[in-house]
Design goal:
alpha/beta; 9 helices; four-stranded parallel β-sheet; single chain; Rossmann fold
């Protein structure tokens, strides 16, 4: 009989030392921040209020559905305060799952070449989020001349990104994510004032404050937030902004 593979869930960007431990043939890693199959997001409603972002509600729904053997959740400043309370909730509703709180304050730079290369933005974002599980430096990608910017966190609904050109550079926490330094405020706050940039955060996320602040400082910025899915209104705002910007 084949040995049981341990299912390990991750939330946020756990420290590199944790990811090295999880890169084991006996362990299957699942990213609980992203929808895993056809989960019912409403299953999270009894445990998290609707003022929590769609990402953390997705974490709860995924965890209830998959019931991982162990969950590593970044509760440090590189994630958010709400993750701390989500860990407490998970501990209570999943008594058979080991909940491990960790704080990623790694400072070794892994590079951000994906954020700056020419690539379909949906594919680029997928590559960055998938790379969280990779403990080795990614291959270098040739940078392109940026014509637009996307600042922020990976949206729960990647279809939001389909309207951007392939020459979009990524900024904000997603750039920190590729660099494997989620607690890097200097990198997170960086943007390019010379290109039209959408500053995005999930609704009810604390990062909406920084997104709105930076968008107001940017010469040609658009602040945008949306909850679970990217509706027609959000997409229309992006499309109009990019078209009026000549992108």
């Amino acid at each position: 009989m084949p040995a049981h593979r341990q299912l390990a869930g991750i939330v946020g960007v756990p420290p590199l030392a944790v990811m090295k431990e999880l890169n084991n043939p006996a362990i299957t890693i699942v990213d609980l921040d992203e929808p895993q199959g056809r989960i019912d997001l409403e299953s999270a409603s009894p445990f998290l209020p609707r003022v929590y972002c769609g990402i953390l509600r997705t974490v709860i729904a995924n965890s209830l559905s998959l019931k991982p053997d162990i969950i590593y959740i970044d509760t440090g400043p590189g994630k958010c305060d709400c993750a701390i309370h989500t860990a407490t909730v998970l501990e209570d509703i999943l008594p058979d799952t080991q909940i491990v709180r960790c704080k990623n304050q790694d400072s070794a730079d892994f590079g951000v070449s994906l954020c700056r290369t020419r690539m379909d933005l949906v594919e680029k974002m997928s590559a960055i989020t998938s790379a969280v599980q990779d403990v080795n430096p990614l291959r270098e990608h040739t940078p392109c001349q940026a014509t637009a910017g996307f600042w922020g966190v990976p949206p729960r609904d990647f279809s939001l990104l389909s309207l951007f050109p392939d020459t979009t550079h990524i900024y904000g926490w997603t750039r920190c994510m590729e660099n494997k330094t989620p607690d890097n405020m200097s990198m997170e706050s960086h943007y390019n004032p010379d290109i039209p940039t959408v500053f995005f955060a999930q609704s009810f996320c604390a990062k909406t404050a920084l997104a709105r602040h930076l968008a107001a400082r940017h010469p040609h910025g658009l602040y945008l937030d949306c909850d679970v899915t990217a509706g027609n209104s959000a997409k229309a705002k992006i499309q109009a902004f990019l078209e009026l910007s000549g992108v």
